[in-house]
């Protein structure tokens, strides 16, 4: 399986993402620059964390107009798995591929530490290797991860079972403890915590690896023809 | 040339964590008459003469300057900026 790791000016978790795919998952990963205009050859798209364009104006606000984003939208429409982590999530929100917006953390602090997440929906292509309600340890590292959406959107997210992860102990003020959501079709996941930083016990946790394994397993099931 | 002053603030319905911190600080300085603080952004655009100026500025605000999911914007257009 071939993963594209999108690199914006100011991305800083791209190498972690690349490492998670190549060395831990054992699949192919390629860095794709923000100014490239073709993602046709990739099976999955990863938008890494960081501070794209210095977080100027709003996190993700400028990155969403980078040339590669038109291709990301196309890939989303084609049903390819798209994962946005941290700044990647913020970019997906700004691009309108996921609903809602991010505010400053409730306590106004940049927080960088492991947190406990609860898998709310283990029937997505990103979470199927987890148990439902499974508690996993994944680090967060953000100053603007206070997820907000209006009540109508929240009701829709709940009704359509689109809340993938919640925080066991809400660190940032997000509505309904939301840590990660998927789009209507279920092929775009945005999450503030960093699964790519939790792919080996050496890093403190390997709980993030199942997310990437889920993507791989679902891709194989739909693409590999059985003899 | 025009000078366009754009103000972007969080919507009334959206809690403003920065605003509450500043309000609390003002209260601790005993400015208890301050009931609420909302923090926003102020931007100045220098714009060449163009058709549909008002429409263009609206577009600019909605496309980039404000995130209308959580923010409101207002603007003022001033004519005749010195070159």
UniProtKB/TrEMBL annotation, chain B:
Q: Which reaction does it catalyse?
A: N(2)-formyl-N(1)-(5-phospho-beta-D-ribosyl)glycinamide + L-glutamine + ATP + H2O = 2-formamido-N(1)-(5-O-phospho-beta-D-ribosyl)acetamidine + L-glutamate + ADP + phosphate + H(+)
Q: Please provide the Gene Ontology terms (biological process) for this protein.
A: 'de novo' IMP biosynthetic process
This protein's superkingdom? Bacteria
Give, as in the UniProt entry, the pathway in which the protein acts: Purine metabolism; IMP biosynthesis via de novo pathway; 5-amino-1-(5-phospho-D-ribosyl)imidazole from N(2)-formyl-N(1)-(5-phospho-D-ribosyl)glycinamide: step 1/2
Q: Where in the cell is it found?
A: Cytoplasm
Does the record carry Transport as a key word? no
Its subunit composition reads: Part of the FGAM synthase complex composed of 1 PurL, 1 PurQ and 2 PurS subunits.
Q: What does this protein do?
A: Part of the phosphoribosylformylglycinamidine synthase complex involved in the purines biosynthetic pathway. Catalyzes the ATP-dependent conversion of formylglycinamide ribonucleotide (FGAR) and glutamine to yield formylglycinamidine ribonucleotide (FGAM) and glutamate. The FGAM synthase complex is composed of three subunits. PurQ produces an ammonia molecule by converting glutamine to glutamate. PurL transfers the ammonia molecule to FGAR to form FGAM in an ATP-dependent manner.
Q: Which HAMAP family match?
A: PurS (MF_01926)
Q: What is this protein called?
A: Phosphoribosylformylglycinamidine synthase subunit PurS
Give the gene name.
purS
């Amino acid at each position: 399986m071939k993963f594209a790791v999108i690199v914006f000016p100011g991305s800083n978790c791209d190498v972690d993402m690349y490492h998670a795919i190549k060395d831990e998952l054992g699949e192919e990963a390629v860095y794709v620059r923000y100014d490239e205009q073709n993602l046709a050859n990739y099976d999955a798209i990863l938008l890494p964390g960081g501070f794209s364009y210095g977080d100027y104006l709003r996190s993700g606000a400028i990155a969403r107009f980078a040339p590669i984003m038109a291709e990301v939208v196309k890939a989303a429409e084609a049903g390819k798995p798209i994962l946005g982590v941290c700044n990647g999530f913020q970019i997906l929100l700004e691009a309108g591929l996921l609903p809602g917006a991010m505010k400053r953390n409730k306590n106004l602090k940049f927080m960088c530490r492991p947190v406990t997440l609860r898998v709310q929906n283990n029937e997505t292509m990103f979470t199927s290797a987890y148990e439902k309600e499974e508690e996993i340890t994944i680090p967060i590292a953000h100053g603007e991860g206070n997820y907000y959406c209006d009540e109508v959107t929240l009701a829709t997210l709940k009704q359509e079972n689109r809340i993938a992860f919640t925080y066991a102990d809400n660190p940032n003020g997000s509505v309904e403890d939301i840590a990660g959501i998927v789009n209507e079709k279920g092929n775009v996941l945005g999450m503030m915590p960093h699964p790519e930083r939790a792919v080996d016990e050496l890093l403190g946790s390997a709980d993030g690896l199942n997310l990437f394994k889920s993507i791989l397993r679902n891709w194989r099931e739909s693409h590999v023809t059985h003899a | 040339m025009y000078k366009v002053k754009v103000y972007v603030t969080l919507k009334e319905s959206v809690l403003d964590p920065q605003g509450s911190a500043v309000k609390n600080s003002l209260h601790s300085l005993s400015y208890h008459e301050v009931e609420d603080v909302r923090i926003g952004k102020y931007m100045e655009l220098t714009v060449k003469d163009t058709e549909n100026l008002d429409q263009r500025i609206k577009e600019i605000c909605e496309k980039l300057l404000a995130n209308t999911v959580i923010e409101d914007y207002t603007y003022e257009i001033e004519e005749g900026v010195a070159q």
